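Q: How would the structure tokens look for this protein?
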Amino acid sequence: MTKTQPKKLKTTAIQILFNKAIVERDKKCVICGKRENLQCSHFYSVGAHNGLRFHPWNAHTMCAGCHLKHHNSDPYMYVKWFEDTLPECLKWLTSIKNNTIRYSQPNLKAIKAFIKMDIDRLAGVINEIIGVGY
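A: Here is the predicted structure in token form.
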């Protein structure tokens, strides 16, 4: 008889939960205020800054139009919004953006639990995983 391995949590599955939680948190596009076709946008990309992938300060809701504009024609639009709205968060994220980690299964389980429970408290969990304080 063989033991069945516990199902591994995948980063992509948790990313989907995280993205939904960010949209639920913000409820509208942070740039234009629209409430339709909402998407989660990361200030620092998850590919280049993996440690900030699940950090709620690094993610905000944009409508599809503003998200497309941010990535293709006017990236400064998001920078300006961040500088005007959350300057201390931007400064702090910038200071830790190059912290890279590989999310372990216990990390992913903790993140998943906090996403379901309280997106705002997730910042503390991510800070602990990355090994930084705020």
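Residues 11-26 form the longest helix (16 residues).

Residues 49 and 93 are 10 Å apart (CA to CA).

Upvote if useful.
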